[in-house]
Design goal:
It is found in: Cytoplasm. This protein has eleven helices and ten strands. The protein has 304 residues and is α/β, with parallel strands linked by helices. Strand 1, helix 1 and strand 2 form a beta-alpha-beta unit.
Length: 304
C-alpha cells in the first residue's frame, strides 16, 4: 500500500506562490515528511525563447535559473519557518521529464497545480501517464484540507480472489483523510448503459459488494454513494452538486486503468470541480485474470 513519505511539488510552468504550493506545504507538515520543491525550466519553452532576442540562449537560461533559485530560497524560508523540511532544486529540462526526476529523488507523491481552466491540461495528462508515482492535482483557489474526500471505486472489477486496487485506493485516501481531519466518502457507478433491461439482480449484487467493501473499511452508510448511470457523467454531475475538496481515483502505471473509471477518467477530471489525487497502482492491478475471476464471481453473488 502506498503511503506518501517524500513529496515532490512541481512549480511549473510559473514559479509563483500558488494553491498547490500551499497544499504541498500543509500536507508535508501534517504527515511529517520532507518536501522537494522543484522549479522546472523548459529549455524549449516560450519563457526562454522570449529572452533570446537580446542575449544568448546560455545567458537567458542562466538568468532565468537565477530568478528561480531566488524564488525557491524565499519560499523555502517561508515553509521552513512553519516547520517543513524543504529540499529546493531548479531543473532545466523538458517538463515531460518530471516523472524521471521524481524517480531520482525517490518521491512517493507528485503535487502540481491545475491550470486555471477546469480539468487537466495536456501537460498534466502527459505527466499522469508517464509518472511512476501518484499525482495530486490541486485546484486553484482557497485551500480546504479539512473537508470531504470522495473515493471512486469500480465494482465491476471487484474480486474476492485478489485486490484489484479498490482496497489500496481506499486505504490511501483514509490515511490522508485522517491526517487532514477530513470526512471520507465512497462512490461507485453502476453502468446502466452496458446492461440489458431488467438487470436488477446484477445491480443488487454490485450494490451488495459495494456495501461489503465500504463496511470492511469502516465507511458509514451515509457516506456511501452507489448510483446508476454512465460512469464519467454520473461522477462528474455528482461532484458538481456536492461539496468535496478532493477526488481520489486509481491509475495503473504508464496508462489509465482499463475499467469504466479508468477509461472515462478524462471525462471525470475535465469537470471534477475539486482537487484530484490519481493513485498509481501496480501494473497487474487490473490483470485479465482478475477481471475474469470478477465476472465469474457475479453469478454466485446473484444466486446468494
Amino acid at each position: 500500500m502506498f503511503l506518501p513519505m517524500r513529496l515532490l511539488f512541481l512549480a511549473y510552468p510559473q514559479a509563483v506562490h500558488s494553491a498547490g504550493l500551499e497544499y504541498a506545504g500543509h500536507l508535508a507538515l501534517t504527515l511529517g515528511v520532507p518536501l522537494h520543491l522543484t522549479a522546472f525550466i523548459d529549455p524549449h519553452g516560450a519563457e526562454l525563447a522570449s529572452q533570446t532576442g537580446a542575449e544568448s540562449p546560455d545567458m537567458a537560461r542562466e538568468r532565468v535559473m537565477a530568478q528561480r533559485h531566488q524564488w525557491l530560497k524565499s519560499e523555502s524560508i517561508r515553509l521552513q519557518a512553519k516547520g517543513v523540511e524543504v529540499h529546493p532544486d531548479v531543473i532545466c529540462s523538458s517538463a515531460v521529464e518530471c516523472a524521471a526526476y521524481a524517480q531520482r529523488v525517490e518521491a512517493d507523491l507528485i503535487i502540481k497545480d491545475m491550470q486555471a481552466r477546469p480539468g487537466l491540461s495536456a501537460l498534466d495528462w502527459e505527466l499522469l501517464s508517464a509518472s511512476p508515482v501518484s499525482v495530486l492535482f490541486v485546484r486553484p483557489g482557497p485551500i480546504q484540507t479539512c473537508g470531504k474526500f470522495l473515493v471512486a471505486v469500480d465494482m465491476a472489477f471487484q474480486s474476492k480472489a485478489e485486490d484489484n486496487g479498490n482496497h489500496s485506493i481506499i486505504e490511501v485516501a483514509r490515511h490522508l483523510a485522517n491526517a487532514c481531519g477530513a470526512a471520507l466518502h465512497l462512490i461507485s457507478v453502476y453502468d446502466s448503459g452496458t446492461s440489458s433491461h431488467g438487470d436488477l439482480a446484477l445491480f443488487d449484487a454490485r450494490k451488495q459488494a459495494f456495501d461489503a467493501l465500504a463496511s470492511q473499511h469502516g465507511i458509514a452508510s451515509e457516506h456511501r454513494h452507489f448510483i446508476p448511470g454512465a460512469p464519467a457523467n454520473a461522477i462528474r454531475f455528482y461532484l458538481q452538486r456536492s461539496a468535496y475538496d478532493l477526488l481520489v481515483i486509481g491509475a495503473a502505471n504508464h496508462h489509465l486503468l482499463a475499467s469504466d473509471i479508468g477509461l472515462t477518467a478524462e471525462g471525470i477530471l475535465e469537470g471534477a470541480g475539486c482537487s484530484v489525487l490519481a493513485i498509481k497502482l501496480p501494473a497487474g492491478a487490473q490483470s485479465p485474470k482478475a477481471v475474469e475471476e470478477a465476472r465469474q464471481l457475479e453469478p454466485d453473488l446473484i444466486r446468494s
